[in-house]
């Protein structure tokens, strides 16, 4: 059941309200045999227990294999989606708050002229035919609110027919996904990660040695002060304490460099670990894309694409999400 909740969140973009409705309408009950609420759904999605960790008072237990139900990467993706959806992130929203709307893009489409986020609205496409009959169809369009409502300066176009943009974006996505199907995982990319990791490790080892050496020097210099006070040293206590200060400064600098390298190394190892995940995610989407529903396509588009910028005359620029960008070229112009 938990698996299903994660899957529908990550793959189909179900929001917590819709998810609760879905579970309740399928007669599924919570542990306490009660109905699902949206906060029960959210609690489930945030529960680290499903990744194999017990949490009490904010402290996490070591990994416990028998508790593990949800892949760590899927969990992270769900957190990303939850975070994007929370109202605090309104401005930088990449994941559509809901995939129920009928346009492909929401929250991730911008006016290329003024940078304003575009919103989708519906309108009635109407004309009267020569024979006197009426043509009336409800359609969607994306509008730049700066231009359309005169809220700000914009020299662009106020509205764009949604299906024209959606169609172009979908076609491009399809091309890219088809390409990834025939592209083996980038060996060069993996090699680059590996060589960078090796380089960081080498630097880390050297810095650790230097830090140890400086610490030893400080201990020796301190001992020398004792001797100097007894008149058994060639150096005066002043000389020695200046030398200790200098050594301490250097030690401090090296320790900062070391923690910086450790941080970079951890990041790089993390990125390398996720490489497989994102690649296989990409492949799965490629395999499923043609047979997926509009909602699934929307969810794929939301996760693959960071933003779409549209300019006058339907000039479209697609910027891929950073995690997938590494497998494709950075931006696409249609
Ligand atoms: Zn605009």
From TrEMBL:
Keyword Cytoplasm recorded: no
Residue span(s) of domain Recombinase zinc beta ribbon: 104-174
DNA-binding among keywords: yes
Q: Which residues form a coiled coil?
A: 190-224
Key words, A-Z: Coiled coil, DNA recombination, DNA-binding
A Pfam family per the record = Zn_ribbon_recom
**Lineage: superkingdom:** Bacteria
Q: Recombinase domain location, by residue?
A: 2-85
The protein, known as: Recombinase family protein
Give the species this sequence originates from.
Answer: Ruminococcoides intestinale
Instruction: Read off the lineage from the record.
Output: Bacteria, Bacillati, Bacillota, Clostridia, Eubacteriales
